[in-house]
Design brief:
single chain; seven-stranded parallel β-sheet
Length: about 325
Amino acid sequence: MPDIPRIVLHNNDTAPMARWLRDAHPQAAFRECHSYDALPALIDDFRPEVVYSVRFAGTPGFPRDALFGPRGPRWIANGGAGTDHYGIWDPEKTTVTNAAGVAAGMMAEYVFGGFLHFTLDIPGLNTDKAARVWTPRMVTPLAGKTLLIAGLGHTGQAVAKRAKAFGMRVLGTRANPQPMEDVDEVHTADDLGDLLPRADFIAVSTPLTPATRGLIGADEIAGMKPGVILADVSRGGVVDQTALHAALKAGRVAAAVLDVFEIEPLPPTSPLWALENVIISPHCSSVYEDWEKASFDLFLKNLGHWMRGDALVNVVDPKRGY
């Protein structure tokens, strides 16, 4: 039987992961770490070959230098999809994998939950309910509307599949355009500016990379169709939230569903909190009851590949960020 590498489990709560690892590999030598501050010393002392890590306390203070330092692991299994908190690394020295896809369906449901919140006028209905008044209202169908998906990765494809169930026309962008199921038109990211005026709804699901930082800025927001509804489940920094706030306040963008922010946690002083046409959630669109198990199952599958010398799945290209 192949040797099991030394492993560090890095999360704010590693108890379930430790149990799953013991169940799969009873002889595994591993350590648990529950903070950013403690990880450098643990890596220096234990010298793990593999670290399974979750970005559980935001990006500031994340111990990337220890992970990629001289005593860092050869493989980092990122528990989530985004890897922007790792910066740029040398793939010849360190392999990084992610858990892209394990929460794609849930994130797509979040996107449409947000869209429906506004198209069904849930805020107005709640206002009438609180006032105990019977006011005739009009709801808006999704069928026949155009959805633009910025980023046709796992999440974008899951969004497209659900959009088709609602009878929507789907446009999308990706780095390497090719025909895709459930997408009527696939374009490059360079075509985004031409696509924005056509969209009634926009879902942003691209990773944060140097190329996508500020992808949707003031000019792009100004070019959107009046009355558009936008959902952002990418990473803070892809959408210029200052420009978005101005457009939301002016009513040029009808509503926004925001799960990611340039600064997380979103500061109490942010003007976004005061807007009634915005849904704010604490970066939780991918957090559901079984997401940690799904992510760790992918890690265990990859661990088997590693022990057999087979290729890992979901290897991240540091230049592309996914």
